Amino acid sequence: MLPRVGRLVNFELAKLFRQKLPYVVLFPIVGAILLVMMRAMDVQGEAVADPRIRNGFEYLGTSCLWALRLVSVFAVVIASLSLSGEASQGTYRMILVRPVTRTDVFISKALVMAIVVLVLFIATAVLSYGLLHAVHGFWRDGSYMSPLNEGRFTLMGEEVIADPNRTKAILAGDFRLAMALSILPLLASGCFGLLISSIFDNTGAAVGLAMFLAIALYGFASVDRKAGKYVFSHSLEYGLSVAKHRAEGYSDRKWEDEEIERAWLVPLVSAVAFLGVAYGIFLKRDILT
Amino acid sequence: MSPVSITPPTASRADVVLRTEGLTKKFGHFTAVDGLNLEVRRGDIYGLLGLNGAGKTTTIRMVVRLIAPTAGKVLAFGEDVRENSLSVLNRIGAMVEIPQFYPYLAGRKNLELLYGLSGGKDRGRVDECLALVGLDDRGGDKVRAYSQGMRQRLGLAQALLTKPELIILDEPTNGLDPQGILDIRNLIRKLNTENGVTFVISSHLLHEIELTCNRVAIVHKGRLRVEDEVKKLLDRSLAVARVKATPMEEAKKVFALRRVEVVGLQDGAFKLRCGPEALPDLAQALHASGCEIWELTPGRATLEDFFMAETGRGGPHAA
Predict the structure, then answer these.
(1) Are B93 and B43 contained in the same domain?
(2) Dist. CA A94–CA B110, nearest whole Å
(3) In a domain, B7, yes or no
(4) Residue pairs spanning A and B at CB distance below 8 A
(5) Is B61 strand, coil or helix?
(6) Nearest to B97 by CA among B2, B207, B173
């Protein structure tokens, strides 16, 4: 099975690399969001003459949260095109008549989706960090941000307030945990897209419904915060918002073990369930297009 | 109505490349394919004939396991296609309906990817196949710029990639110009005679099937009506004559009285199933009954005549 899946992954990636447009569009959008968020925070700091110097982790948390929200929508869209795209184009007729099984095809589609999501995640993190330095870098005087290479995370006005709980190492650890917690919800978003994709032969219907449901679930999780914790995309919000609040220093928000556990468990279970149902549908369906 | 059984005795197991046994597909209450038993032998160019909606494409889709049969099974090279799909599909090339490719990739790149998917490593094979179908000079163009005929050729090329023993082509000449049709026909014959490749060709182009295939199955409303060698079908039962006589009602009575079967009506002339030796007597009988004879032409029937008779156009087995 492995050689066949390997060939299929290679096949999928070769197709993907030649479809440059989505990525050509996505990265400037992500970059623009990061820039706008960083700048907005900076301007806000100037406008209110905030004596508190903002630190890089605060910027990073906010900008990454917005960028990853976009990536999660993109993951849903890309994944919802995955199976339905072959069906609507009629290209299954070229793939499935070859010595590969449907299981091989499904695994390769899921793997490629995961690869794309992870690449986008890493790219977002790198881009975010890079832009942070470019815009509010070490060299820039007059920024309201405390550069990342300085340990002045507790600087208030001209005074450095001693706070052993908010050292650079601790905030960096917060940020790493938040980013790690963001991976599973992104993958779950992709699996959700695959599930919708396995149902439809029409890409428009698949993308439309997948986006609608993903946004509806996101809205539901924002409105009903208690039940929203069980929505797969929630932990994307949870990790980065905790990290950001802790970096700000205003809030006494803390990491809670139960929440952390839920933050990886809910998207993991959701992803497995989405994949299982999508696989079942894909295995049983007649290819009529 | 029972299927016509003029199929010769079953070939030995080793000779049979593809066999369907009681193959059935239902979509809800609609039965698209109903207990189909086909047998394709090694070296055949086997035509699968039927009207639109007869179940040809559904049958092919079941053979290459794009859809699952409701009942029955498909055996290729003696193995069940669903149970041993990998080993079976290694030996089959297929083009199902109008071939679809990735439009943003070049024709050559599409073939390279599909060849790689089948585990192919011979780098020259893709160019070989492009040359075989006459696309060697357009392989670098994106598929979105291809005409339907070029896509059809590319579809045929992808079916040839792995040098399969059995090639299944669904309407292979769709969208091709006359030269293209001739090229494809010659290619099929060449591969069949020189390389021993077995072909299954589904089509409703009767003339094309008659010219290309050695064996044929006629499928109507999902059921097998006839399966035999084309030559035998034509020799056995297709002596026809064209008779134009008036009044037509009177002429019909004469035909019925003399048990001459009316196969069809064309331009006011009857097409009769009878050999040239019967025509003098028939002319006398028509004359005796007061009919005026305007035309009386003996002729050799075509597969079209047989097909029309078998698919409910006045034949003895029509519904």
Answers:
(1) yes
(2) 10
(3) no
(4) 77
(5) helix
(6) B173
pLDDT in tens, B12-62: 666 889 999 999 999 988 998 999 999 999 999 999 988 888 889 999 999
Nearest Cα of chain A lies from the Cα of B85 at a distance, in angstroms, of 7
Asked if residue B123 has pLDDT above 90, the reply is no
Chain B residues touching residue A7 (CB < 8 angstroms): 116-117, 119
Its domain, for residue B283, covers 238-300
Tokens 């007597």 map to which residue? B281
- Hey, are the CB atoms on B67 and A95 less than 8 Å from each other? no
Secondary structure (3-state) at A241? helix
A15 alpha-carbon distance from chain centroid? 23
Shared domain check, B24 and B139:
yes
> Tokens 């925070």, residue?
A41
Q: CB distance A97–B114 less than 8 Å?
A: no
pLDDT tens, position by position, for chain A (289 residues)? 888 888 898 888 888 887 766 666 776 777 777 667 666 665 555 544 454 555 667 777 777 888 888 888 888 988 998 899 898 888 988 999 999 999 999 999 999 999 989 988 888 888 777 766 665 554 444 444 455 445 444 444 555 555 566 666 777 788 888 888 999 999 999 999 999 999 988 889 999 999 898 888 888 888 887 888 888 888 788 888 888 888 776 667 788 888 888 888 999 999 999 999 999 999 988 877 7
Q: What is the mean pLDDT of chain B?
A: 84
CA separation for the pair B182, B187 (Å, rounded): 9
Six token digits for residue B6: 């003029």
Residue at A174 is within a domain: yes
**What is the predicted ipTM?**
0.76
Q: Please tell me the pTM assigned to this model.
A: 0.81
The structural domain count of chain B equals 2
Q: What is the pLDDT of residue B93?
A: 92
C-alpha angle B224-B58-A82 in degrees, rounded to nearest 5: 170
Q: If you measure CA to CA, which chain B residue comes closest to A12?
A: B113
Assign residue B138 the CATH number of its domain: 3.40.50.300
Rounded Cα distance between B141 and B103, Å, is 10
Specify the pLDDT at position A132. Answer: 65
Residue A191 belongs to some domain of the structure: yes
Same domain (yes/no): B251, B154: no
Distance, in Å, from the CA atom of B305 to the CA atom of A147, rounded to the nearest integer, reads: 88
